[in-house]
Design brief:
The structure is a homodimer of 402-residue chains. With 402 residues, the first copy, chain A, is α/β, with parallel strands linked by helices. In chain A, 19% of the residues lie in helices and 31% in strands. In chain A, the strands form 8 sheets. The first copy, chain A, has a 6-stranded mixed beta sheet, with no helix packed on it. In chain A, strands 16-13-17-21-20-18 form a 6-stranded mixed beta sheet, sandwiched between helices. Chain A is elongated and about 95 Å long. The mean pLDDT of chain A is 94. At the A-B interface, helix 2, strand 15, helix 3 and helix 7 of A face helix 2, strand 15 and helix 3 of B.
Chain lengths: 402, 402
Amino acid sequence: MGKAGFGKLMSLSEAKELALSNAPELGTESVPVSEAMGRVLAGPVSIGIDVPHFAKAAMDGFAVRAQDTFGASETSPLRLRLVGHVTPGVILERAVGPGECIEISTGAPMPRGADATLMVENTETQGEEILVYKTIAPGQNFIKAGSDIAAGSSLFGAGEELRPRHLGVLVAAGLREVEVRRAARVVLMSTGDEILSPGEPLAPGKIYNINSTTLGESLRAFGCHVRDLGVVRDESGAVKEAISSALEDADIVMLSGGSSLGRGDFVPEIMAELGTLLFHGIAVKPGKPTALALAGSKLILGMPGYPTSALSNYYIIVEPILEKMSGRKVRKNYTSARMKRKVLSTVGRYQFLPVKLEEGAAVPVMRGSSSITTLAIADGFVEIEENVEVVEKGATVSVRLF
Amino acid sequence: MGKAGFGKLMSLSEAKELALSNAPELGTESVPVSEAMGRVLAGPVSIGIDVPHFAKAAMDGFAVRAQDTFGASETSPLRLRLVGHVTPGVILERAVGPGECIEISTGAPMPRGADATLMVENTETQGEEILVYKTIAPGQNFIKAGSDIAAGSSLFGAGEELRPRHLGVLVAAGLREVEVRRAARVVLMSTGDEILSPGEPLAPGKIYNINSTTLGESLRAFGCHVRDLGVVRDESGAVKEAISSALEDADIVMLSGGSSLGRGDFVPEIMAELGTLLFHGIAVKPGKPTALALAGSKLILGMPGYPTSALSNYYIIVEPILEKMSGRKVRKNYTSARMKRKVLSTVGRYQFLPVKLEEGAAVPVMRGSSSITTLAIADGFVEIEENVEVVEKGATVSVRLF
């Protein structure tokens, strides 16, 4: 058939290093706090106001001048005049003068003059007076303005992923917008005349486009903006045109199919025409027919057509690239397990081995890279490094959970 | 001030048990596969077609009748007539007859008559003939129809959370819709005249509504449909009206603020009027002023107003309720650490202790439940069970990571 082979395959570590050193770090943008969940901070956040913004009571009771309680005890109570009450959200004109107190609820602004809150349990109300049964110190049950966050301070740092507890702080500080790393824009397309879009009527010899779903949903879950062009006609001109046009507004153009060596597998050639081909063919199993090119500051990724290979390469190649570009680290969950049976591997080739966990044992479930069920029935995968020839039955392995 | 206290507080375990035994399991609904990411399967999925739908080649090479290769070897090749070629997506009329072969690409439908694919490496093409250098068996490099999934089989099971690898299978099987558990509809509201909506201009004595963000984003991240009513006027009639109206289309009505015992804390009374009050006041620190009522099959949850308490109770009370209702289990990440300093707790009271991880040590960072920064600077929390009085410095604790 007269085709050139892949030639010498690149090792996974070399391919990743090349990908990571060429992948651009995305810039930043300002987004409303209400849309910032899951986004990655561009840098520390400057807080412009005191939080809380005013001194307030930490307890229900009476706002007092602490010195007016000095000497009070269960056996010799002191008397204070009750001159008002204050609830949350209300600012009193009236100050607390010598010998006076003001009834206060938790969270209400401390009236001027008061420097402590006497708990209701330590008092007894008698008409317009209260009896004070306890001596308290200045500052007691008194939350100072700025005690949680002082105006002018900065919080968090670059790379922090914004979760509900961070967003709460931004809201408390009155921020409306926050500077975050830009999300990667990815354009997806598939090649292959046998490929149908999901939901199209099935025809003989045709198969559904699985990769746009598995890759697309994985990218969205990472936080990327994904535009799916669907199936592009399996013809060199059409594919080149689609990639060129996609490069205009994408950070990554990702193709699936067409990077193997069969008829119509012209994608790597097009990639080399549109940019610099960094690799084509990596020493991994499955997932060998994978290609990466750099076009200006954009990446073109040629992913394998086989669904298991496309998704396994998402984990081992694409995810690290996205982490670099976005500054966001995915939380990876690992568990330790004993290998249920002996597994052979080829020296010089990294193996992605899907496994199911059964009673603490890792059971290999690889059904071939053309099987779409392999990953769906697996609980995670074991990474067999390239210098490993055999993983013995009973050996302890680290399983990355899906 | 003449107020009743909480009376005897309910233990967390009792409160959770009561909540879980009363929380309804939500029903199911059909959603498009393209919108099913993260949803929870209602039950096994029935597959109506064979996957793959047709027999195909696993390799580039020649589709042959295996018997025609019997006896072929490097030293005594056999000859076959090359009568056509087939690529993916194409159905050939022509069958492979005795002594014939058809060139085939990986993934292309096997022509009728052929029962194996001879790899191109084991052949040599000479004009209209090929030389066969290897004997192969029927079924070799031949992917049978239905070998991945047989029509009529069912896959997965109730409670499976749909991830990209599952959605790929649904697409491959030609499914357009999938039956999933319904997502919980939650209506959020906050009470308190001192509360401003995020982004409103700050006024003296006022604070921003933090809980609608922290609770709302946590609920959304779980997969709930959240409708946020914002701040409801701190008046019994207005709050009762808002809850009644929200109950019409919510599974859970969640209030924050107003369940403590200060002035205007009438929420538990209203909850008791609209349903059965299951508890009010739980023996946890922070988060004591928490109330739950059952109104028909709906829940009314009164959460503390303090932001740390509201969010800590999300983890210890609300999340288990959502898990029960939705059938979805949250992946909880734990790490083991040594406690950096001695921590005292009260017997009979569960303590939620936020900690920061520093060089393998868990450093308590609790700044009081009114502090909004406490959880934001923490990496996770330690749960101090109610029967524990002291956690010694250096003790090994399990930290649930945020």
